């Protein structure tokens, strides 16, 4: 048997270049989106450098902006983790927005109902109730998907609308702050949560609270769940090939439902943390678009729990900096929404092209190449036997 020793060849270089390009694709997508946004700003007669400079300074250039960015990143991490779990099972969870609302409602109702309990007991239970409410809200589309093959995109979008109307009803009726009724203002918000369930601020007089570190710990926990547990293996197996997973004895319907429940639980926890750490009560618009932005965060993080962390930090900064850009260059609020939409479009497109590139490389590796015909080693091997 002869052994062919190969040095890092053109094929090896192509392999590493492809891997690096796939890793950088989300960042390239953001740059392309920002370039398109710059063209729009030029069309409006605005200076793109001035606008983007204000945006990044507002998000990362000051202590106030940085703490706001971290505060925005907290619910984005939690929602992104839930979306990651669902997407790993090939379940597209578009319902995080409604799950955040229901989680916030559940946490608020529980805390107000048992306000006399001590904080060491009430605080974790309040967060748990928010996660439970979000999980139950995710259970409905999960069962519809698993048992009746109902498209989860449609069902989760409709569940979002139901959650929104439920919040509007409760905040104008049963959960309306009694102080607002007495004053005759009727601002749609609940009574303030008892102080013992407030999550303390890391930096005084800012919105940056200790819930951020809980989100980091949960990102590590989800990583362990997906790659070091039987349940995580089943979730990923169902995502790769449901038919093969079913043949291997994995209860596919149960796994799909559980993935949606876990996704809803993380979104519901994000709603509870937002109430306990930022607003200290539920207010209209509590979700803040985190449910939809969390999908982009998960995709940008390549559907990896640890990748969600820097992704959430970046998009949290974009949310904070967009407000500063709007004030600095006087652009309409619709442009900020359009810019976020461009980022979504480019990130999703980059994920598609990355998948196409991976499929093409796998196809090339599967069929005999000209190098094999000439008794040469494969392009991506360093040591191959020749019998």
Describe this structure in words.
With 387 residues, the protein is mainly α. The chain has a domain at 77-306. Helix content is 74%, strand content 2%. The chain has 15 helices and 2 strands. The protein has helices at 10-43, 48-61, 63-88, 96-113, 119-148, 152-171, 178-183, 211-228, 230-240, 242-247, 252-279, 290-300, 305-329, 333-366, 370-373; strands spanning 2-5, 383-386. A two-stranded antiparallel sheet has the order 1-2. Helix 3 (63-88) crosses helix 12, helix 4 (96-113) runs antiparallel to helix 5 (119-148) and helix 4 packs across helix 12. The relative contact order is 0.20. Mean pLDDT is 87; it is low at 378-387.
In short:
This protein has 15 helices and 2 strands. With 387 residues, it is mostly helical.
Order of helices and strands: EHHHHHHHHHHHHHHHE
Through-space gap between termini = 5 Å
Approximate strand percentage: under 5%
Give, in spatial order, the strands making up the sheet with the most strands. Answer: 1-2
Q: Extract low-pLDDT stretches.
A: 378-387
What does the average pLDDT come to?
A: 87
Based on Cα principal axes, name the global outline: globular
Helix percent band: over 70%
Instruction: Classify the secondary structure makeup into a structural class.
Output: mainly alpha
Number of helices: 15
Number of DSSP E strands: 2
- Rg, nearest Å: 24 Å
Largest sheet: 2 strands, antiparallel
